[in-house]
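Thread: "does anyone have the structure for this chain?"

Original post by V.I.:
We have the sequence but no experimental structure in hand. Need at least a predicted one for the grant figures.
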Amino acid sequence: MEHKKNTRNTGGRKPKLDPIKHRYMVNFNDDENALFRQMFEESELDCYSKFIKAVLFKREIKVVKVDKATLDYYVRLTQFYRQFQAVGNNYNQIVRALKTNFGEKRALQMLYRLEQCTIELVILSKHIITLTQDYEQRWLQR
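Reply from O.Q.:
Generated one for you, tokens below.
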């Protein structure tokens, strides 16, 4: 068996082309530390070192603030929209059922009552649209 003296064991990790090997240490007092942590949380980065590099090298830091009230309003408006669609589907089914199951006079009576409820629903939906537009103008930043 021949052993080459120049062969090297190539097991393990391959070395990085540009290893990160320079480290620095910073000390903060309590006020500075509170400000640092607040800025870090607002940046929504996952690592302190990435945050510090971004601040030092003036990279763009995205701060996303989630307004719980706006999110809740949006969720409730979405739920209302789904219910409104369900009412529309039921409306069509009711009109079909009235047409097929009742006489003309009785169907017209019931359609009149249904029409009154529909008018109330339209007024309510217009009021909701007005409130939403007012909310967007007052509270949502663009």
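V.I.: this helps a lot. The chain has a mean pLDDT of 82.
O.Q.: and Residues 19-65 form one domain.
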